[in-house]
């Protein structure tokens, strides 16, 4: 009898333990599931922590982690961009310059000039194989500026050395005359126009429909604005100094920088194309190179500091500034929106005289791609260049409406593209 009672007691104990274990397991599973959901929520809130792929929203957050952009509303089906590699080699031969034009029925078309031949190529809608659209041979091209005239024909200002000076010609390319044949006879009709040898600098408007240029007047320089026919030039200003670096980031404002180095101070000026005022924005900074944002209210700039330099973001109206790390030169950046930049950043910065030694080719960088947020001062590694791409010293060329970023390698001149459809998730 005693043995039966003992056996029954053991069975009851075993069953009780089983029930308790089942309850605990279920509660544990619930806790784990809740924890996983909470962890996923954290990852979704800070998407850089999981995949290093920022998820852009249409409005900026207060901490600057989400710059303003909406990749899905582009008017172009970018689903095929997901089939592309994130980093893509576009050319096998060196190029001189690249841009992006919105052609009729072919928006976001990349266009570039091949250095060895002077021929011009384009990628319609930024996809497919490059198409040659010119057979005008121009050797030793120095630089090129692309745009569109009033008839939506492509304009290319090409500069090249001749008789110890730089000469310029304007090529106008009428794509409407192109046939489906691949022979040279079927290439678009191209007209050539010689430009003044006294023109010493060019820059193109944000809409790619106008040109601002500087004409050397001896000890002064005249500033003109014209369309891509060069038939309606309007003088804007005459300046007593002519050694400028110019850009045109905002429709009504051109940016003028004095050329500088690590031992001399530089200045920054804004030229209003509305009222023709010329005002100084910054002054007295060693090694001062500048990249102004699309509304010219913010800039990034470099400051020489002995054997290195600082990389600084500044809001001009408020004076608020942030010093970025890791540092890079402003010339190696493209603005993503009004306060965020995508930049090529050296894996390691050797001690040197900046920016002089880099410009002179005494050193080169091994770049990766980073994104910087001006308002918060934060930065994040965007894409690592590895393998055969690990020795690239990148120069930004253009960004299209699909958030594809074009770069050339400073050493080889080869054109590359960071494909936005793979990096910036819609």
UniProtKB/TrEMBL annotation:
TM ranges are: 7-25
Composition bias type Polar residues, residue spans: 66-77
**Source organism, top-level taxon:** Bacteria
* The protein, known as: DUF5050 domain-containing protein
Write out the entry's keywords from A to Z.
Membrane, Transmembrane, Transmembrane helix
Tell me the segments the record calls region Disordered: 52-77
